[in-house]
Design goal:
- With 399 residues, the chain is α/β, with parallel strands linked by helices.
- The protein contains 14 helices and 12 strands.
- The chain has helices spanning 18-28, 56-67, 75-93, 108-119, 135-141, 161-168, 193-206, 234-237, 247-250, 265-272, 284-296, 298-322, 350-357, 384-398; strands at residues 43-45, 102-105, 125-130, 146-151, 175-181, 209-213, 240-244, 258-262, 327-328, 336-340, 360-364, 375-379.
- The strands form 2 sheets. Strands 2-8-7-6-5-3-4 form a 7-stranded mixed beta sheet, sandwiched between helices. The protein has a 5-stranded mixed beta sheet with strand order 1-11-12-10-9, with helices on both faces.
- Helix 6 (161-168) packs parallel to helix 7 (193-206).
- The radius of gyration is 21 Å and the shape is globular.
Length: 399
């Protein structure tokens, strides 16, 4: 194993690239956090925002809203979303949710917090399939619940059912819930029906609340298929809170709109009993954009997934050819590459080393849990010139 800690390769002088320069000029003019956290000498491939514009149908719907100065109370746009989203699930994933069980929220994480707060008790254990989306840890621990770490199989990132069973019976106190990330962030795994049925069986036998974050369900590549957890069986549906947003597939994170399909009757009653304004409300731009995405955005989404598949395959090919000590399982979903850099001896947090020596910002592996040590997450939802510039820098720094 080569130790690059003190001897980074010299980054070659940059050859002028008009396409890259044009992309960077456009992207650095954006106001979002992705392109503004770091200086202009850094290429950001960290947070899960795409660098491509959203669907024309979404832009058109928002433009009409602005052109009409239509910023008054808009309860109709919100009222339509449960049925619109349910029809999208039918057409894209073959699941028929009940619109009456849908609550419109500002954010998927708001739904995770809500379900944990109302559906578990202080001291309860909550299973996370790790490595996993970092905010899940805070959602559990900030309200006095325990994280029960259940690692996926390293390299393949498949579910070990016996390990899950053991974690649910961990002996440190009651385990009452499991938070799924399906498809899985950061690994890009799409759980198979057999895996989901195994989780449903464990949840049924141990009476677990299942909180299923399915925000990546519309960004799945050919060869895999997203199966909503609640569609596995009526028993699974009755204990599952499903959380979805148009934000990832349509690049709408700043518009703050998500939906929660609340399967458990007891939990639905608790949510209904909350003060009417406690959870806040979604603004009309988020509702209008989500409606446009879910009613008119299918063709654009298919083309975007095809483009992202090309980006994914390009990253995989370059990593295999030019970073021989790195390991990367080709993701079945998402636009995230989960790369093991431990073979380069750059420490538990390769993103810190690469930020310093390559001027590329990646997702911080250890933030995804202890099983993220040695890893970093690369967002490839950008233009090809920007992606290649970032990979060139990484290759040069580790070369």
């Amino acid at each position: 194993m080569t130790d690059h800690t003190h001897t980074p390769a010299r980054t070659p002088a940059r050859t002028p690239d008009p396409a890259l320069d044009a992309d960077l000029a456009r992207l650095r003019a954006l106001t979002g956090v992705k392109w503004n956290r770091y200086g202009d000498d850094v290429l950001p491939c960290w947070v899960a925002d795409m660098d491509m514009p959203t669907a024309p149908s979404v832009t058109s719907a928002l433009r009409h809203l602005v052109d009409r100065a239509d910023f008054g109370y808009n309860f109709g746009a919100l009222a339509e979303l449960p049925e619109v989203w349910a029809q999208w699930q039918v057409s894209r994933h073959g699941w028929t949710p009940e619109p009456s069980r849908v609550r419109v929220l500002c954010d998927v994480l708001q739904g995770v917090d809500l379900a944990l707060w109302l559906g578990t008790r202080p001291g309860d254990g909550v299973v996370l399939l790790t490595p996993v989306y970092p905010p899940f840890f805070a959602c559990v621990e900030s309200i006095g619940r325990r994280v029960v770490d259940c690692p996926l199989e390293p390299g393949t990132w498949r579910l070990d059912v016996e390990r899950l069973e053991s974690c649910v019976s961990d002996g440190d106190g009651p385990v009452t819930a499991i938070v799924l990330c399906s498809p899985h962030n950061p690994t890009g795994r799409v759980f198979t029906r057999a895996e989901l049925e195994a989780i449903a069986d464990v949840a049924q036998r141990h009476d677990l609340l299942v909180i299923s974050d399915e925000i990546w369900g519309d960004l799945v590549y050919p060869g895999a298929r997203h199966i909503p957890f609640a569609s596995v069986s009526p028993q699974a549906a009755s204990r599952t809170v499903t959380l979805v947003s148009a934000s990832k597939p349509f690049n709408l994170a700043g518009l703050r709109c998500a939906v929660a399909h609340i399967g458990p009757d007891v939990l639905a009653d608790k949510v209904a009993a909350l003060p009417s304004h406690l959870l806040g409300g979604v603004g009309s731009p988020g509702a209008v954009a989500s409606r446009a995405a879910w009613t008119e955005g299918g063709g654009w989404l298919d083309a975007t997934v095809a483009f992202l598949r090309q980006q994914r395959d390009h990253v995989a090919a370059r990593v295999a050819a030019e970073l021989p000590a790195a390991r990367m399982a080709v993701p079945e979903a998402t636009y995230l590459a989960w790369i093991d850099f431990s073979g380069y001896g750059v420490g538990d947090d390769p993103s810190a080393w690469l930020l310093e020596h390559a001027k590329v910002a990646l997702g911080v592996g250890p933030e995804f849990g202890e099983h993220g040590r040695g890893f970093a997450r690369l967002n490839f939802a950008t233009t090809r010139p920007v992606l290649d510039a970032a990979l060139d820098r990484i290759v040069a720094a580790l070369g």
